[in-house]
Structures are given as structure tokens and as C-alpha cells.
From TrEMBL:
SUPFAM superfamilies: Homeodomain-like (SSF46689). The keyword Amino-acid biosynthesis does not apply. PROSITE patterns: HTH_ARAC_FAMILY_1, HTH_ARAC_FAMILY_2. This is Helix-turn-helix transcriptional regulator. Coiled coil: none annotated. Residues 205-303 form the HTH araC/xylS-type domain.
């Protein structure tokens, strides 16, 4: 495992004497998530380097958390979410195999959000919570599964734009819902509405031009936000308010439109080359996405 986020999954792997089923990586190779199948037993976790958000996927619900010898959490539920702050220490007892999905959040990610949106240097501390039912977070984890390429479970890296989007959405929810220090009414208004609700048509034209010029490349949210001269968080909401889609879904729709043109007009071009020219990392991802969005395979569409 490489990258700044690798130390936390390594710590967990060492503590549990197991390895994750798979890891989720960004385009640069940094690990930001992992799926685990923890067996029954007892585990000590000491001073993880990043904040850890844990989503209970399935399996055993006989879960107990102790901190300094005191039970601070008991009986998890499938679909519930637990937050472990960085540097925290806890003991865990599992009554059976438990399947969970972890997301690893560096403090710099939270502080950047605070600087861009709350106009604070440091992000308010997030409350430690155990197995809470949270409809938004449940939907978020389901959305993450749909935003990620189908082959992500096999070690492929997520595009930067996907990762930027999901992290921005997640941090905003955690800060507004679970900050230990009260977020002021003015700051709550900032996180809900931002500094702008609509992008000017002239800005949209520039964004469109960049997307079409770099359709085959890895595009990050910062690239697009800089055109509008606003923060990544504000841009994400402004783009969605203006276009009706997230930036990644819009990018995906443009890639698929170019793929349709190439499949129709370049009959001799191999499907794998069509996939490459349209920004898909491999043929299997392209084929699965094309079928999901159009109802037919690329070869079937070509006829």
C-alpha cells in the first residue's frame, strides 16, 4: 500500500491479522477506502492516522466498542455508520463475521473544506459516534457504489473527479451534522447555498471546451472550479444547480456521446480504441458502462 492514506489500513490489517477484501484508490494511488470482512474476536485499534468512517454492510451485529475499559457502543445494525476520529484508541469485540466499508479522511481534507466554505483555518472537530442510523449517509454509500467503476472492487483506481465529488459531499455532511462545536447559522447557510447558485453561460462554455478537449484524460474538480473562480465545494453545487447533473455524470454523458459517434462513423476502429479515446481506463469498464447507460453493448450498438 502506498500513499499518505496507507498507514491507517495497514494499522487495521496489523491489528486484525487480516487484509481487506479490496481497497479503493484515487487516480494517484492513494488509498481512501477499503472493504473488510472481520472475523469474530477482539481487536485493539490505536491512534489511526486518519479519521475513519465505517459503514456496516452486512453480517454480524453483535459488535461492542470499549474506550479506556468502558463500553461506549453496543449492538451495531446493518446500514449504520460509525466515526472514529484520528488518534483515537478503542477496543472492539465482534461476535461473528462482520462486513464493513471504511473511508479514510485526512485532516487536511476537512481543513480545506473549512477554509473554502466556513472561512475558518481549521475544521470544527467531528463528534465521535457509534452505529448511528443516518439516511443521508446510507444513501451516500449506495451512491458511492454507483459512482465507482464496476471494476473498482478489483483494484482499479477511481477517477479524480469521482473522488473529489464524493469527498466534498461527505465532508459537508459530517461538518454540518456532527461537528462537536456548533456551526453558526451563517455558516450553515454557506454550506447549504454557497456563494453562487448558478454558473454564467460564458463560464459553462469554457467548462464545456475544457471537458471536450480533455475527454480522454483524468480531470479533477479543481480544474473545473478554477474556470469559475470559486472553491471546489461551491462549484460542485453551482454546476449541479445549473446543469442538473454532477460534473462527473456530465463528463460521463459526453464520453458516451463521443463513443456513440465513433462506433457509428469509425466502423474499422477496435472497440478498445474507442474506449481509450473516450477516456475509459479499460475495455471492461467501457463495455459495462455503455451497456448500463444505453441497454446494449458497444458491439451491439455498432450492429
Amino acid at each position: 500500500m502506498t500513499g499518505v492514506l496507507s498507514s491507517t489500513p495497514q494499522l487495521i490489517a496489523s491489528a486484525t491479522a487480516s487484509a481487506p477484501d479490496y481497497v479503493l484508490q484515487g487516480h494517484n494511488g492513494d488509498i481512501f477506502g477499503a472493504r473488510w470482512n472481520h472475523p469474530a474476536g477482539e481487536t485493539q485499534l490505536r491512534r489511526n492516522a486518519e479519521h475513519v468512517l465505517v459503514y456496516h454492510l452486512s453480517g454480524n451485529t453483535d459488535v461492542e466498542r470499549l474506550q479506556q475499559g468502558v463500553v461506549t457502543g453496543f449492538r451495531s445494525r446493518v446500514g449504520s455508520v460509525t466515526f472514529m476520529p484520528r488518534d483515537s484508541e478503542s477496543d472492539w469485540r465482534l461476535g461473528g463475521n462482520t462486513q464493513v466499508l471504511h473511508l479514510y479522511l485526512p485532516q487536511t481534507l476537512l481543513d480545506t473544506f473549512a477554509q473554502d466554505v466556513l472561512e475558518r483555518d481549521v475544521c470544527p472537530e467531528i463528534e465521535d459516534f457509534f452505529a448511528v442510523p443516518d439516511t443521508w449517509l446510507d444513501g451516500f454509500f449506495r451512491m458511492l457504489a454507483s459512482e465507482a467503476p464496476p471494476s473498482a472492487a478489483h483494484g482499479n483506481r477511481l477517477e479524480t473527479l469521482v473522488l473529489d465529488q464524493v469527498q466534498s459531499l461527505l465532508v459537508r455532511h459530517l461538518v454540518t451534522r456532527y461537528a462537536r462545536e456548533r456551526v453558526t447559522d451563517a455558516e450553515r447557510t454557506q454550506t447549504r447555498s454557497g456563494k453562487t447558485n448558478q454558473l454564467r453561460q460564458s463560464v459553462l462554455k469554457k467548462i464545456n471546451a475544457l471537458i471536450h478537449e480533455r475527454l480522454h484524460e483524468d480531470i479533477c474538480l479543481k480544474d473545473l472550479a478554477e474556470i469559475a473562480c470559486i472553491s471546489k465545494d461551491h462549484f460542485l453545487r453551482a454546476f449541479r444547480d445549473t446543469v442538473g447533473q454532477t460534473p462527473y455524470h456530465y463528463l460521463l454523458s459526453q464520453r458516451l456521446e463521443r463513443a456513440r459517434v465513433l462506433l457509428r462513423e469509425e466502423q474499422a476502429m477496435p472497440v478498445a480504441e474507442v474506449a481509450r479515446r473516450c477516456g475509459f481506463k479499460n475495455l471492461s469498464h467501457f463495455s459495462a458502462t455503455f451497456r448500463r447507460m444505453t441497454g446494449v453493448s458497444p458491439k451491439g450498438y455498432r450492429g
